[in-house]
Design brief:
Immunoglobulin-like; four-stranded antiparallel beta sheet; three-stranded antiparallel beta sheet; 1 helix
Length: 130
């Protein structure tokens, strides 16, 4: 049986539509509120149909020197075209993007994870510097 860490996939987001893309400031001041936006399919659009979609995105912060990351935010995406008449009969589709704001007392890593119902878990990270 595989470990969860063995199931996490990563790639260059400019060439792979499943990778969560992290947009954030390159540096902030200690305890300054900053905004982080994570999008799946930024460069190459990801399908959003009942059969193939991004189900959720999670954003974590792992402070330098700490053992565990902290969950900053999670967003689930529930509208993939399913309607009362069946699959892909609705005109309502969510876009896999989440924005969160937080402050940190020390530098570290912003970690993002997304889940595609067909292709599994995808991850990326970005350094937060002061």
């Amino acid at each position: 049986m595989a470990e969860l860490k063995e199931l996490m996939q990563s790639a260059d987001w400019k060439q792979e539509k499943h990778v969560p893309v992290i947009d954030m400031p390159k540096a902030v001041k200690k305890d300054e509120i900053m905004k982080v936006t994570v999008t799946v399919g930024k460069q190459i659009a990801h399908p959003n149909t009942t059969a193939h979609h991004i189900a959720y995105i999670e954003v974590y912060f792992h402070p330098d020197g700490e053992k565990f990351p902290v969950l900053i935010g999670r967003s689930e995406f529930g509208a993939h075209g399913a309607g009362a008449q069946g699959v892909d009969t609705s005109t309502i589709y969510t876009h896999p993007e989440i924005s969160v704001a937080f402050k940190a007392g020390k530098p570290g890593k912003v970690l993002a994870m997304s889940y595609c119902n067909i292709h599994g878990l995808w991850t990326s990270s970005a350094d937060l510097k002061f």
